Amino acid sequence: MARMLELVLSLSILMSMIFSSTAQSCKGYAFSSNKIFRACNDLPYLNSYLHWNYDSSSNKLQIAYRHTGITSSRWVSWAINPTSTGMAGSQALVAFQQTDGTMRAYTSPISSYQTSLQEGKLSFDVSDLSATLANNEIIIFATIGLSNTSTTVNQVWQDGAVSGDATQVHATSGANVQSMGTLNLLSGESSSTGGNDRIRKRNIHGVLNAVSWGILLPIGALIARYLKVFKSADPAWFYLHVSCQSIAYIVGVAGWGTGLKLGSESASIQYDAHRTIGIILFCLGTLQVFALLLRPKPDHKYRFYWNIYHHLVGYSVIILSIINIFKGFNILNPDKKWKNAYIGVIAALALNAVWFEGYTWYLVVKRKRSEVAGKMPRGMNGSNGVNGFGGRQHQGL
């Protein structure tokens, strides 16, 4: 009897696991509206599923996007990106429950990573757009008129918080930055890109530029301004300065190149201010490198004017670099710890600059006084003559 009970219990657990597994798959799901979809796909992140019917003759795509385990304080979205595999450039369908209990479903073109999902017209036609919320599951229904003949689309799906009736920015880590991939509408085959390639390129772009333009260049400037005051550091300070700025320029050009690559992959997304400042920095940095080849000798009559140009352009590059790095932070929206870390580095460099400025001025003034004292004629207390009054020594007989 006991063995029979154990067998029944084991079968019960096995059946519950089977039913649970079935419930978590898109296959066999029955829509309450009696809609039928010929194909479906279990999306790998965010408890999401996509059902669709695709008519290749009319290029019409009828979809039902399901997002389970959701509450009324969350929004969900499913999008097609006609230009790349990332979020920027996506043409999104968005849905959430409003404070009055009604569902809102609308279209939103994603033009930047800092989007607040404003309503707008998409690059393709959308009809029969609606949404439901039941049993902690939001479903978006829509019919899409695809604008190209390709049967493979780049898809992005997402969720985030709702405050009042306003959508908030979604999380920027974990599954929320992996919920993207490609989908073949005919075969049903899908692949999850996870955004890894693009995220890696963005991170490389940010790190290279922050380290080069934002850290190494200011350090090189500090070396040139303050170490040359110490006579023992001459000419080592010059070679340190040139080495630091050369490394910064080479790494910065690599970062600038990754930025161009990212821009070419998202032609519909333009960060005009960030891009313009980046081009200006590259031009000024290149000009500084070539100007080094034309540096006059210290005693040349044009060296004074060259120094003015060199300092003016150099400090302009540093200021523009820091501004553009913070614009980059606003675009990429990384974890706050990275922005705070960079702020800490800049603050440390600024404090060191203030301290060195005061100390080097002290050394310069002290040195000037010593030089002036060395050139003064000897005076009182026997410093000029032997009697303290400027008298000459009596010559012996």
Describe the structure.
With 397 residues, the protein is an alpha+beta fold. Helices cover 44% and strands 21% of the residues. It contains six helices and twelve strands. The chain has helices spanning 2-23, 196-226, 236-265, 272-293, 303-332, 336-375; strands at residues 39-42, 48-55, 60-68, 74-81, 91-97, 103-109, 125-134, 137-145, 152-163, 166-167, 180-184, 190-192. Strands 4, 5, 6, 9, 10, 11 and 12 form a seven-stranded antiparallel sheet that branches. Strands 1-2-3-8-7 form a five-stranded antiparallel sheet, with no helix packed on it. A hairpin with a 4-residue loop joins strand 2 and strand 3 (60-68). Helix 2 runs antiparallel to helix 3, helix 2 (196-226) packs parallel to helix 6 and helix 3 (236-265) packs antiparallel against helix 4. The longest helix has 40 residues, at 336-375. The protein is elongated, with a radius of gyration of 34 Å. It starts with a helix and ends in a 22-residue tail after the last helix.
